[in-house]
Amino acid sequence: GLAEKDATIESLRASIDELQETNKDLVLASQGAMELKILFDDPWMVQSTKCRLKSEVPVDREFNTLTCMGKSLIMYGGTGKELDKRELKFCNLETYNWENASVPATQPKSLPPITNHATVMVGRTKMLSFGGNRGGVRLDGLKVLN
Question: What residue ranges carry the coiled-coil annotation (predicted)?
Answer without folding.
Answer: 2-29
